[in-house]
């Protein structure tokens, strides 16, 4: 974008159509919308604001998948070694490492596409949650995504520790929806050398809050804790610098902002300081043949020799079709650039926020009747990604979300009170944001 968030300062009538027209005219990324298939209704295309749950399908995905199916058809097993498009299956996981590294701020050997998010988290917790009699606590957010909750609790039990004793949940202050960084840091100070692991989400799934990953990581490591992050809602959404920030490990899925297909292949990051062979680290690790050194993997020896870096945590061979779908989408990210996407994202979300706050139904008050809503996502652009979480009266939230969908606006609901709307910079326009908010306003006027 050739304009900044300052564009909105001093505007008296944000609902004037000239604003979205100008912003769309200035949008240097607008052509990327043509890279995606957008679902349509009988009476026209929908406004898709749900890429934080499932990204749209890139058009090039279908072409690349057809190529792989043709290779399977014509080459069968030889496709592992002899591939007409120079993507041999025996090393296809290497295809995406440079792109993933750029997205999360890592070296290629620190990342790998593999498995699914929660199964990957379990694998890394086996290696990096090492409780002792004194140091056994896990500090994380109170309203973490359920799967993270389940995984952390289960690993406490695997070590014969009562989860109620091990898990330290950081909660928002009374009357607030999001966590203050100072409260997270204070919790770390309070539990100090009893902390074994600190794990938060990069962007919180319910509120859309973008945590200060660098600051929290640095403070947690000063306490001697291992630090991990669930980046399901952060990767492909906000710029990340995992290597520079000293993050120990991270996990993510790829079917949200990375548009890799429903349930697509996930990924992990492990800092090189935890994997370099000259550093003697006792890694208990679930091991399988695809984590074996690729130079000798197919010799089928009985003893495990780990691959370099994060690849040593791979267990099974790479699912070629889902890896190819991810590869297709990552090409688009490389072309657009995550910093450019972030600049447009700030503008899109800022425009949506100002339109919503100009609504007759918006309130700052948390006591909501059936014709009111508020926004619980931080207003500070440095503390949010591409998502705004709108809080409604819990008795009416599902109804309003249903009405939005009937009128062609696809967001999603998160019980008990939230509708999430996520304008995605790769394929959403400022006009779509304008139209979506106008539709919400009309629905609330009518009902």
Automatic annotation (TrEMBL):
Pathway: Amino-acid degradation; L-kynurenine degradation; L-alanine and anthranilate from L-kynurenine: step 1/1; Cofactor biosynthesis; NAD(+) biosynthesis; quinolinate from L-kynurenine: step 2/3. One of its GO terms (molecular function) is kynureninase activity. GO terms for cellular component: cytoplasm. The keyword Cytoplasm applies. Its EC number is 3.7.1.3. Keywords: Cytoplasm, Hydrolase, Pyridine nucleotide biosynthesis, Pyridoxal phosphate. The modification N6-(pyridoxal phosphate)lysine is found at residue 256. Transmembrane segments: none annotated. GO terms for biological process: 'de novo' NAD+ biosynthetic process from L-tryptophan; anthranilate metabolic process; L-kynurenine catabolic process; L-tryptophan catabolic process to kynurenine; quinolinate biosynthetic process. It catalyses: 3-hydroxy-L-kynurenine + H2O = 3-hydroxyanthranilate + L-alanine + H(+); L-kynurenine + H2O = anthranilate + L-alanine + H(+). Pfam families: KYNU_C. It is found in: Cytoplasm. It comes from the Eukaryota. Pyridoxal 5'-phosphate binds at residues 117-118, 145-148, 201, 230, 233, 255, 289, 317. It is an enzyme of class 3 (hydrolase). InterPro entries: Kynureninase (IPR010111), PyrdxlP-dep_Trfase (IPR015424), PyrdxlP-dep_Trfase_major (IPR015421), PyrdxlP-dep_Trfase_small (IPR015422). Catalyzes the cleavage of L-kynurenine (L-Kyn) and L-3-hydroxykynurenine (L-3OHKyn) into anthranilic acid (AA) and 3-hydroxyanthranilic acid (3-OHAA), respectively. Belongs to the kynureninase family. Homodimer. NCBIfam families: kynureninase. This is Kynureninase.
């Amino acid at each position: 974008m050739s304009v900044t968030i300052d564009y909105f300062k001093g505007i008296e009538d944000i609902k004037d159509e000239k604003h979205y027209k100008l912003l769309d005219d200035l949008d240097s990324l607008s052509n990327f919308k043509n890279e995606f298939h957008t679902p349509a209704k009988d009476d026209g295309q929908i406004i898709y604001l749900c890429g934080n749950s499932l990204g749209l399908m890139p058009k090039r995905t279908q072409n690349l998948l057809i190529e792989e199916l043709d290779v399977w058809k014509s080459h069968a097993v030889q496709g592992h070694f002899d591939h007409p498009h120079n993507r041999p299956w025996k090393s296809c996981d290497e295809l995406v490492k440079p792109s993933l590294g750029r997205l999360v701020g890592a070296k290629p050997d620190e990342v790998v596409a593999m498995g699914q998010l929660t199964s990957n988290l379990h694998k890394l917790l086996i290696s990096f949650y090492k409780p002792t009699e004194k140091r056994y606590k896990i500090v994380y957010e109170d309203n973490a995504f359920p799967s993270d909750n389940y995984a952390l609790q289960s690993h406490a039990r695997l070590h014969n520790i009562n989860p109620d004793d091990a898990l330290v949940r950081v909660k928002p202050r009374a009357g607030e929806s999001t966590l203050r960084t100072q409260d997270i840091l204070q919790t770390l100070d309070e539990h100090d050398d009893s902390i074994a692991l600190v794990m938060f989400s990069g962007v919180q799934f319910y509120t859309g809050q973008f945590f200060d990953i660098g600051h929290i990581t640095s403070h947690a490591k000063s306490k001697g804790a291992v630090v991990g992050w669930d980046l399901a809602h952060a990767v492909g959404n906000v710029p990340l610098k995992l290597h520079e920030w000293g993050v120990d490990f991270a996990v993510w899925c790829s079917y949200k902002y990375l548009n890799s297909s429903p349930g697509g292949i996930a990924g992990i990051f492990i800092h090189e300081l935890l994997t370099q062979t000259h550093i003697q680290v006792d890694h208990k690790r679930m091991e399988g043949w695809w984590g074996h050194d690729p130079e000798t993997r197919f010799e089928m020896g009985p003893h495990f020799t780990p691959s370099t870096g994060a690849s040593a945590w791979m267990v099974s061979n790479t699912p070629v079709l889902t890896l190819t779908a991810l590869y297709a989408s990552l090409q688009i990210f490389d072309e657009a650039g995550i910093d450019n996407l972030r600049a447009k994202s700030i503008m899109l979300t800022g425009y949506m926020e100002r339109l919503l706050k100009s609504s007759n139904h918006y309130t700052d008050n948390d006591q909501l009747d059936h014709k009111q809503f508020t926004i619980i996502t931080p207003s500070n652009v440095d503390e949010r990604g591409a998502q705004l979480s709108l809080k409604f009266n819990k008795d009416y939230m599902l109804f309003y979300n249903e009405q939005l969908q009937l009128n062609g606006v696809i967001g999603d609901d998160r019980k008990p009170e939230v509708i999430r709307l996520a304008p995605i910079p790769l394929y959403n326009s400022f006009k779509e944001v304008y139209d979506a908010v106008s539709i919400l306003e009309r629905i609330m006027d009518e009902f």
